[in-house]
Here is the input.
Amino acid sequence: MQCPFCKTPDTRVIDSRLFEDGTQVRRRRECPQCDARFTTFERAQLQMPYVLKRSGTPEPFDEDKLRRGIEHAIFKRPVLPEKVDHAIENVMRRVRAVSEREVPSMRIGEWVMDELRDLDHVAYVRFASIYRAFSDVNAFREEINRLEQLPTPEARRSQMLLIETDQAAAAAAAQTAPAQRLAAEHDKPAKATKRVK
Here is the structure.
């Protein structure tokens, strides 16, 4: 890869690590000419479905548009850039998982709201006010009341950890059961057989 500083055509990789739950590879590179170091990210290029707008017009999925929408919502909020990247990757993962050729923009908006609810409640209400086109203060109040009744991000994460632990335990039990049966049968005393004279 070309050096972004001195334009040397070839740079060397000095470190590679998996990033974003293994969906990306983060590479540290060094230029042999100017000794500059920089980071690149590599991920699979997958065909994204078209986004079906409210008007019924399909348009290509645009990651930059998704990022701009989230960044407008979190403007001047204490949200780390890594968490924004993670939220965007989560939404894109859900879009890629859609089996149809088109995904309604309304569904993508709901997925963005799911992510913003875990990132920052103020950002969530900002996005919801535009996305759901709040008409008055009562609509804001209703959304805030609904938000307050939902479990906190920490509570949801702990619930997910419990579910994942239960699933892992069930999978481990399913794998060990056949081995235990074989061991039990192996340990059974052999049946006495009558000798025929």
